[in-house]
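Bench log. Compound arrived from synthesis this morning; before running ITC I wanted a structural hypothesis for how 6-O-phosphono-alpha-D-glucopyranose sits in the protein. Inputs:
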Amino acid sequence: VYQTYENASQQRLIVVANRLPVSAVRERDGSWSLQVSAGGLVSALMGVSNFKTCWIGWPGVYVPEGPERDALTAALAKECYVPVYLDPKIVDLHYNGFCNSVLWQLFHYVPLNMDSKLSETRTLQFQWAAHQSANQRFADVVLRNYSAGDVVWVQDYHLMLLPAMLKNRAPKMKVGWFLHTPFPSSEIYRTLPVREEVLRAVLKADLIGFHTYDYARHFVSACTRILGLEGTPEGVEDNGSLTRVAAFPIGIDPERFARALEKPNVKAHIAQLLNRYAGRKVMLGVDRLDMIKGIPQKLLAFEKFLEEHPQWRDKVLLVQIAVPSRTDVPEYQRLRSMVHEIVGRINGHYGTLTHVPIHHLDRQLAFHELCALYAVTDIALVTSLRDGMNLVSYEYVACQSDNAGVLVLSEFAGAAQSLGAGAILVNPWNITDMAAAIEDALTMSDQERRERHRQNYMHVTIHTSQTWADTFISELNDTHVEAELRTKH
Ligand code: G6P
């Protein structure tokens, strides 16, 4: 797998993430096709090219051992992707259960399930056991693929136990861990029954990174309050040994979008859409169908706007792309029904024979379709209730050089700290204010729109995913030098 690299002097980066950047999908004829996975983590890491990178992760499907699994492994190996196969029971308890019904919720300020009965407590124990064995499976694959000198970059909340599992077996391995979600206030985090085990395991990393300074601060408080360790400006100290903790705001690869906008198929798509939307203003929402994205709140704000501004009713359209996500988790199934109900109600009430106010799609778009939509729409609505960063807002800005469209952005997205100056910031829980923000965005002067866009565009083009990765990895390499200096003194 690794001999395909041309520049052997480059340090090898092993990215370990729950999901590979492509997910395997079974075609009708039984063959496998590889589809780009959804989400900010993949979108950012795809923009990182300065390293010779190998990915280790779950391919999204279960394939029993045998020739079929070998064929998929070989297809992935061509891209330097190493699959971690997990059996369906583990996937259910670890991925659907512990990761997405417990950690994901808690990290986005959704309290643990209030109806927990005795049997559910037992479920949590099973989920935790499965979570530990899934992390162990990942550790085994990393150790099998690791060579001295490689740097290992563990991603996200699914793999918080991995730093300890790796360091216990390979103490000299350089291990970084980065969280792509918020890290909540320690007052929320401390409700997690296994709060200590998780913190102790992740603290074994050499460098711990978050999107914002606030998330890093919450993490350090959790370590001081729950584990009684010492928080310093550099990180967390335990008996003289320091784990460095810092903020590394992620970005995108804006060039990838700029290049796409020059391609004939994207240009053709843009022309088609402009024709279709002529005479109307178009607002855009692009989200994984996840409760943290605030899709119902966005729809309710649009409904309120239509109710209060009859003159706009046939002149404005919301295109909402809701990418299916974690479809086996009950919360996500309930959200889908709720969103469909609200969309149906608004379209039924405000639609006419010639105009439908919400164009809602339950699917992921091809990259060229997405770029075209980003480019032609007048407003983007990002209304997350909590969001680690939210790179849709970055992608929208990157595609808006010609139009200078308005970004309406939740103050609860990490991106509010970087794009706050150019965006209209909203509290997604305040439907009245969000409806007012829609009006402001629709009626903003050309000059103000351009000035706001200029500020955002500057930020997006300077703070790229490449800079993010370079900064993290160079700091990770330095942590070892620092640690050696400390032991010498
Ligand atoms: C978020 C998480 C990622 C995850 C992505 C898609 O961005 O931070 O780790 O990969 O959502 O979710 P999924 O469960 O489909 O991998």
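What the model suggests: Residues 18-19, 38-41, 156, 180-181, 325-326 surround 6-O-phosphono-alpha-D-glucopyranose (CB under 6 Å). The longest strand covers residues 12-19.
ITC booked for Thursday regardless.
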